């Protein structure tokens, strides 16, 4: 049974024992030798496929080209055989592989998500854990256990501690979870993982300006940086180096100064000793390349495109009002007060966080494409701009309540829409979860994950290489020590020009 752990700020003279500190309890979960259940293993395989899909589709996008060039500037480090980089045969040291692959996985905003008190992309745990596993020659069983821990810790932190309210970027939950996952992978002791978790948290707390206003390429780099820091934190902890203690609860710690302050209290749910780590089953991936809270709205817009074609013409529409949760309204809706969310010259990263833009394009096109829907010429189309500027959002308390519900059966990421036409007709509809959600109209299964890979890899990876990769990943629990290099998927000849990488310091 899950155990709820109270967490609050302690004055230094209270001398909180480390056994009672959240970082130590996380470390204890990471060291629990409980086996991974079959359904969790199945989902881990799905998410490795999912990560490969979106990374392959990003291989020649500028952030990935730059991150890959940085990684390739560093040779394989001592202590292992190095780790692979998406798309190519060359290896580098594990922290730089985590960096390059983390950027590739995150760039299109197209992999899995978990939303509760805060939000997250728990698939970001996979690149650093896999990089370390490849470097040290781990087997598939160890990798499964490490990834299950990474997901468990991140989901549990996201359920309990809100970072967004204090404008702290959500990767502050990723550093500790990835460090814990690497600790499980390597079979480290509680004390070492405790120190690594503290260092990983201490080095990955940053403001969320990276997801505000004119969103930059750093949005894709932020989780990769957290993964890289987690690898380095584990390395330091293994060498006997310690972290700030207590990192969460200290009077000058994260909670006291970055989150809810000296009087704060949280309740963090963690698995009891011997309890299986099943949090990955509460997470969900994306059918569409957009912020997760836009997934359901794309599906609803596609439905309205079919049923009400008259609503796709700006000349017929007086207004479009989207009623949704507090988080959706204030982060990707008009409540963010970001004029860039209505700008036809905004960056892809900004449009990805604009529900008025996304809903408009999906409504007009009846579809969503990870490249075409963000193209500058698509965003600048006059009829699209005209309709886009008639779309606004507002918070609906009931949708906010459902967004924050811990009951998976009623948790919702959608809302309702009112389209008022110029002739006075009002079209209304609503959606609770995306079609691909486990409770949606068309839940993703292995078939959909494989189809996503084949679709996004078309023209980039040879069919035989896709087949080889899928055969390897589907055997993950049986892969022997040293066989995890098979989880690297290679681009076809000529797809990547390594000489085109931008020059920097390294």
Can you put this structure into words, describing what you see?
There is one protein chain. The protein has 506 residues and is an alpha+beta fold. The protein has 2 domains: 280 residues, 2-methylcitrate dehydratase PrpD; 140 residues, 2-Layer Sandwich (60s Ribosomal Protein L30, Chain: A). The protein has 19 helices and 10 strands. Helix 2 runs parallel beside helix 18, helix 7 packs across helix 9 and helix 8 packs antiparallel against helix 9. The N and C termini lie far apart (49 Å). The relative contact order is 0.15. The model has no long low-confidence stretch (mean pLDDT 96).
Topology:
Blueprint: E1 3-8, H1 22-31, H2 38-56, H3 62-72, E2 83-84, E3 91-92, H4 94-106, E4 114-115, E5 119-120, H5 126-136, H6 140-160, H7 174-186, H8 190-202, H9 218-238, H10 254-258, E6 265-270, H11 295-307, E7 317-324, H12 326-331, H13 348-351, H14 355-365, H15 376-379, H16 382-388, E8 391-395, H17 397-404, E9 415-421, E10 426-431, H18 446-457, H19 463-473
Parallel strand pairs: 7-8
Antiparallel strand pairs: 1-6, 2-3, 4-5, 7-9, 9-10
Helix pairs in contact: 1-7, 1-8, 2-4, 2-18, 3-4, 4-5, 4-9, 5-6, 5-7, 5-9, 6-7, 7-8, 7-9, 8-9, 11-14, 14-16
Quickly list its features:
MmgE_PrpD_C, alpha+beta, 60s Ribosomal Protein L30, Chain: A, two-stranded antiparallel ribbon, 2 domains, MmgE/PrpD_sf_1, 506 residues, 2-methylcitrate dehydratase PrpD, MmgE/PrpD_sf_2
What's this model, at a glance?
This protein is of the alpha+beta class and 506 residues long. The protein has 19 helices and ten strands. The strands form four sheets. A four-stranded mixed sheet has the order 8-7-9-10. A two-stranded antiparallel ribbon has the order 1-6. A two-stranded antiparallel ribbon has the order 2-3.
